[in-house]
Amino acid sequence: MTQPIRLGVNIDHIATLRNARGGRHPDPLRAAKLAARAGADGITAHLREDRRHIVDRDIERLSAELTVPLNLEMAATDEMLAIAKRHAPHACCLVPERREEVTTEGGLDVAGQQETLKRCVGELGGAGTRVSLFIDPDRKQLEAAAATGAPVVELHTGAYCDAFLEAAAQGQAPDDATRRELDRIVAGARLAGELGLECHAGHGLTFDTVKPVAALAQVVELNIGHFLVGEAAFVGLDAAIRRMRELMDEARARVAAAS
Asked: Which of 97, 203, 221, 231 is catalytic?
């Protein structure tokens, strides 16, 4: 039987707007509560080393007031580990982080950091937090992720979305590059299941790119943020989330009907 698919809404860029001129508005907590009412199953927030969007006070307020699970995205550093253990969110997604990047540019090199990540997974799991590793859909990285003891992986969908948008910008239908990147996600999701890992996916997903990923039976959660915040400028956050939820559910229903 095909599982329902969950939607995690990333509110980082509500905080980006707030921080652009200081003050308290727009409020990430208000956005998180609205997202939950609109159909989000959880809220994702990335506390970066440089605090460029979400800040410590946001995590405190989200932890205290959310009625849906909080997924804290963070680098695998001692500072972030201490913060996560103090707040004990429902989930932590360990991601790569470079100060100079605009957004997360790729997945973790789990194979190259296996011992460090294994320690983080163990400490967070011991504190009652479910841990996921944000990785590219690559066999080597998936096998390394399983070896750390992490129960969840989140597959990086950025390359697929970029290829789709590049073809669209040239007035073309999805091309071979788009299909190759989607095939990598399909294979990665399948391997995750074979390795006993819960599989999530996210990064760059839009109304136009979400359905093929949501249709993958092994993928049980999508985390989407920047596109929804951008779309909210035109239609409102509630309407943007409801539309994304609708598209995901349509894709899932077709899978269930075919199985």
From this structure: 203
